[in-house]
What does this fold into?
Amino acid sequence: MFALDSFDLDEIAHALQNQDAYDLRFLVDPRTGELVLWTLDGGLDGENPVDLDELDLIPIQPLPPYVWYQDMADFAECVGDEQASLRLSRALRGSGAFRRFKDQLHHDYPELLPLWRAFRDVRARRRAVEWLSDNALTGLDVARQFIAEHPDPDLRQGQ
It folds into this structure.
């Protein structure tokens, strides 16, 4: 097992969000904790294709989009500005929700962007730590402590 500071939690979080996983995958070497990128055409070194099943590495499977959607819904529900909360919640209805939510924030509520980024990032890092723990790369107690020490930001600042 490794210490959490052995990993770039933002990179692991990015891998968990990456929905273009058909021709590229992020993997972790369980011996070193190193994060590596595999591509369909170039394998690990960019030149020699290799089948994923032949590697002794742990693939990071992306989490389904509804996980990330729920972050947007939770943010919209809890943000301190009632009008912003309502409009962001409306933006999440139907297809194209991710784009509409982002556009709504950038165009109508740019003052909420720092809160959104902090909220999104802390949740993504907690998921990265959970993934590391689930894959026995760090201890469960370490993961629980990290999660307890990194709660969601206070969204009432957006009032």
Summary: The chain has two domains: 4-59, 65-158. The mean pLDDT is 92. Residues 4-59 form one domain. Helices lie at 9-17, 65-78, 82-91, 97-108, 113-134, 140-149.
